[in-house]
Design brief:
heterodimer, A: 62 residues, mainly alpha, B: 503 residues, 2 strands, 74% helix, 2% strand
Chain lengths: 62, 503
């Protein structure tokens, strides 16, 4: 159970370690890195929660 | 913006406002399974505890991403650039937190028939003082939040060219009446309309506006130049000194978000714990929207708008770039977007007053029907109070109090959440921690002139953190110390209804 739950730590690492993404380059579709990187974490986080949810469902947790 | 009334925009606005008013009054019959059974607080205050995944998605989305957000986040981004973007990591990180905590809280509440977070705390620790602390913090933090929804409405009413306070008062009284009659079902039903409208407005805005302004690259460039011209204290990326406040504001706000009575009301009203888990997966869709809304702040630079007050950024942008009828639609979306959270907030505050003050101290033998009656009247009082607040006190007062409210509500986190996961803490330790966090947080905020961040000097280096997080760390440290020193525990884990039958 623990390894799956730890997936949920990834968004915290990815978003709270600010120096990692505090740049303008590389830009994407006109968006500086700072912006598209953080926006990208929205679907990634939703996906990670979904994976943990499916995993727990299959294990028969309520 | 001129003082003229924009008739086309106003007509569209009034049409949608009337539509949701009819829906609000009709909502008392919705999702009741045919029969009218309002004479129970579970019915009025939690919509029968029967909202499925879709209704919860619209309700919590409509309630968490408020009208004030649509006005204030672009205003902040317009004013301070990248720093104002902390709303994005905040509204991402909130969902893993919801996924882990809220299904457990829902179980604890559902098994014992709890309606509020303070109920859950009393059920777990048996401490009237801790219950009162959580309840009072909730009500006090919510009141200025309701007032700010009125500010959001005021801004768009002004953008329509209407002056005076009568339109605002009229809109709010209508809201108060249908919340009184239909309870949580009214905002839940209206949230469908509100959210669809906001989605349409934002999608149109993020496609149309940049194409009119020469693309996103140009929008960012124009904003970057404007910040550089202002002296470069802020910009398109964070300055080194802004990084720690940025991260701590994001995590602190994410921890606080679902401690508010209005967001918790959405959780308690869910049909099952699974409903909440699914919503943790799907609610981030609103965060994409918020990220795009935030960019409206930069678009204002590319559009060369002349803006007097930061809060006018969004309405001024819409008035400048959209045809009148679409501006009316957009302003209606924002105004209706104020009604949903204002309604849920007043219901959340009314539930707290009824369960944790009226039932606890005034009338312990109150029936569920009696509770519903008290709560309905309190919801009216709360809304009138917020209206008076906005009409007669400076707006800055509400802004300051809302900021303090965020620091305060975060101090209820240990009391509400820790007991769901482990039984080590006792009520007295958590109560002491809460008190120290409240006093320490307020003191720091006041000494900084009501700013959300506090700077510490360590070895000559300044470290700036969100005050709410600092106070929370103090809160937890004191609770641990008191528990170690005077160590009486809460109830043993097995006896706690919150944990029975859990994995």
């Amino acid at each position: 159970m623990a390894p799956m739950w730890s997936l949920l730590l990834l968004p915290f690492v990815g978003l709270l370690w600010v120096p990692f993404y505090n740049h303008e380059l590389p830009a994407l579709f006109g968006f500086p890195f700072f912006y598209w990187y953080q926006l990208l974490w929205v679907p990634i986080t939703a996906g990670l929660i979904w994976i943990v949810y499916r995993h727990n469902l299959r294990r028969g947790d309520e | 913006m001129s003082g003229d009334i924009h008739w086309t925009a106003l007509a569209v606005f009034v049409f949608f406002f009337l539509l949701v008013t009819v829906m609000g009054f009709a909502a008392s019959r919705w999702q009741t399974g045919g029969s009218k059974k309002e004479a129970h607080l579970d019915e009025w205050g939690l919509g029968g505890r029967n909202f499925g995944t879709w209704i919860t998605w619209f309700l919590v989305g409509g309630d968490f991403y408020t009208a004030y957000t649509v006005i204030a986040v672009p205003a902040l981004v317009y004013a301070v650039g990248a720093y104002g973007f902390f709303a994005l990591p905040y509204t991402i990180l909130v969902y893993p937190i919801v996924f882990i905590i809220m299904p457990r809280l829902w179980h604890a509440a559902s098994k014992a028939g709890h309606v509020t977070a303070a109920d859950v705390v009393y059920g777990r620790y048996g401490s009237r003082w801790l219950e009162l602390a959580v309840a009072v913090t909730g009500v006090v933090a919510t009141m200025p939040y309701i007032a700010l929804q009125l500010v959001g409405m005021e801004v768009v009413i002004k953008a329509l060219g209407l002056s005076g306070e009568l339109p605002l008062a009229a809109a709010f009284i209508i809201l108060a009446l249908y919340t009184y009659s239909a309870g949580l079902r009214a905002p839940a039903l209206i949230a469908f309309v509100k959210d669809l409208m906001i989605y349409i407005v934002v999608l149109v805005a993020v496609v149309l506006v940049p194409s009119k302004l020469g693309g996103y690259a140009h929008v960012f460039q124009a904003a970057g130049e404007a910040f550089a011209a202002k002296g470069g204290a802020t910009g398109l990326t964070l300055k080194p000194a802004q990084m720690l406040p940025y991260a701590s504001l994001a995590i602190g706000s994410a921890l606080a978000a679902f401690m508010y009575p209005h967001t918790l009301t959405g959780i308690f009203a869910a049909k099952s714990a699974d409903t909440i888990r699914k919503n943790a997966v799907f609610l981030p869709a609103y965060t994409v929207l918020l990220g795009l809304i935030a960019l409206l702040g930069y678009m204002a630079y590319a559009a060369h708008l002349d803006i007097k007050s930061n809060n006018d950024v969004v309405p001024a942008l819409f008035n400048a770039l959209f045809p009148a009828w679409f501006s009316g639609f957009a302003f209606a979306a924002i105004a209706i977007g104020a009604l949903v959270p204002a309604a849920v907030m007043s219901i959340g505050a009314a539930n707290l007053f009824t369960r944790n003050f009226w039932k606890a101290y005034v009338q312990p033998d109150v029936t569920p029907a009696g509770e519903a009656k008290v709560a309905k009247i309190v919801s009216l009082v709360v809304k009138v109070g917020a209206l008076v607040f906005i009409l007669f006190l400076p707006t800055q007062f509400a802004l300051d109090l809302q900021l303090l409210g965020g620091v305060w509500i975060l101090q209820t986190f240990p009391a509400v959440v820790f007991g769901l996961f482990f039984g080590w803490f006792g009520g007295p330790a958590l109560l002491t921690g809460w008190a120290v966090g409240m006093i320490g947080g307020s003191w720091m905020a006041f000494s900084d002139g009501i700013k959300p961040v506090h700077t510490f000097l360590i070895h000559g280096n300044g470290y700036t953190l969100y005050t709410g997080i600092t106070a929370l760390l103090l809160n937890i440290a004191v609770a641990v110390a008191v528990q170690l020193l005077f160590g009486r525990r809460g109830r043993p884990l097995a006896a706690s209804p919150a944990l029975r039958g859990r994995v």
